[in-house]
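Fold this sequence, please.
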Amino acid sequence: MTTNSYSLVLDNFTRAELECKCKAIHLDAPSLDNLALRLQVLRTSFGRALNVNSAYRCKDHNSRSGGVKDSKHVLGQAADISTVGWTSEDRSRFIRLATGLGFGGIGINNKQQYIHIDLRSVGMLWLYKEAKTGD
């Protein structure tokens, strides 16, 4: 088990995995307890490791990484999970489990191989546009 500075003890995630990757100290960062707990339940239900590419992002880091202004990442309510090595069945099962656990926002990026999940209350599913090349 991993002990971290949330009020939770998680089996499979550390605070560093969920904090902003810019490594700055963010005194105004939101609580990540709800996201962390749901990610832990999702990981346990899925039965395999989840590699978190990104979870909480400060506004500056979110802007630099191309995130939208009202991103759930800035609120500590989103995570991008790597799908490298997953089959289409793995992705489908993951999405079903995530929606069942209250992740209302699901964004699929096939080219960069990740699935965005967030805690919005209204169900929304989208595909990220593939970047154009050669123009």
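The chain is about 25% helix and 20% strand. The chain has one domain: 2-127.
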